[in-house]
Amino acid sequence: MRIVAAALLVLVGGGGSARAGSDTHYQDQLIGERAAGMGGAFIALANEATGAFYNPAGIVGERSTLIQLQMSAYKWRRKTSVAIDLCGRRIERDEGQLFGFPASLGFAKRFSGPRHTRHAVGLLLTIPYASKESNAYAVRDVNCAGFRVDGGGATYVTDRVFVGGLTYAFGWRWLSVGLSAGLAVRGTGAAINVSALAASLAQHPLSSMSYVDGTVWSFYLKAGVIAEPVKGLRFGLAVTSPYVRITGEGRIDSYLASIAGLRGTVTRLLLDDAQLYWKVPLQLGVGVAWRHGALTLAADARLHLPVARYALVTHAQLPATSYSERELTINANIGAQLELGVISLRAGFFTNLSSFPRLDATAPALAEHIDLFGLTVGATLQTNAHSALSLNVQLLFGSGERVALEISDAAGSIAVRNVLTDVSEVSLVFGLGGRFDVW
Known about the structure:
This protein has an 18-stranded mixed sheet that branches. The chain has a two-stranded antiparallel ribbon with strand order 13-15. By secondary structure, the protein is mainly beta. Helix content is 5%, strand content 69%. The chain is built from two helices and 20 strands. The termini are far apart. It has one domain (2-437): Beta Barrel (Porin). The chain has helices spanning 2-19, 21-24, and strands spanning 66-86, 89-98, 103-112, 117-144, 147-172, 175-199, 203-230, 233-240, 244-260, 263-276, 283-292, 295-304, 307-311, 313-314, 323-326, 329-340, 343-352, 368-384, 387-408, 415-437.
């Protein structure tokens, strides 16, 4: 039965890895009409209604009252990794998804003040990260130390992050400052189903079903500065506080049934009040932008501080073994925009490096380290003096490693150990957006 237990562990670990996606990468997808086309290089610009996501000081640069909407019309993702190496038999897990996120809605209103001063207020609602994954596998007649093992399993995981915030910005001559305050909500649901059969002198069929559902509420602050000491040359600085957990509760249901001979047992674990945690560290972003005529160039660097080891889930009936930690990470963004009359063309490059520490064979089964790189292109059509429509495409790709279990039957006995395996990922996102000058 150790084989069956190991298979269960792999499935549970696979769900945990998916739920940790927005933890291990702090720059999952790009939002905003122009920012998404410029590779997210927007800290020194941020002059659109959703600009507070990058730098709250930017909304004071808007010359009117704007409503801006952007969302992914189509998202395709494929991730390939080894779930378990069962007695020399590799089980490949290929995940794919079609999902209409990320999305954002922004509002910005500017007020002119006396003596070259100006003010602005804004509202930002966004889903910067969302994932929906499902996968399944089946194995038959695998021989492990005289045991025949048949197995099958399936997982279904959803993971969404919602961020909403209010922004105030103040500008004077060539300097503007801004502050955003808001809430971040993360909701996760996972269904895991596995059945397996180990046979020697007696039949031992086993089936298991687990369900995880939880939500974490957090508070955050973001402050920013944009300076333009020379016309056309802008510098930006943005600092985002660590997310402060307000509350986090979840439910974990687990059912395990097995039959040995004519006797059967059912084990049920029901935890309604598990405490969930989500650590997002202090983030520092710096950017520079230069505009000359119709051409705009921009570059950003984002630093994410490390996170010490912490428990993902705590409960009196759970062992304190589910820990996570993050490394110091720096991501880069480069973008360009060319204005050709009523059409603006954009292109960019960005990195989405993993903050999960480099792996070894002692890492937990859910550990994954994968470095991603992205390319973006986009265009905006100015439909009239008060509105515009945009299209952007993002391609994200990369590779890395994750921990899987290897089960061997050396010397006639079952041996289970961690092994490092390769993992690759590619995503394609088509985004639509628009902005409207309401008055």
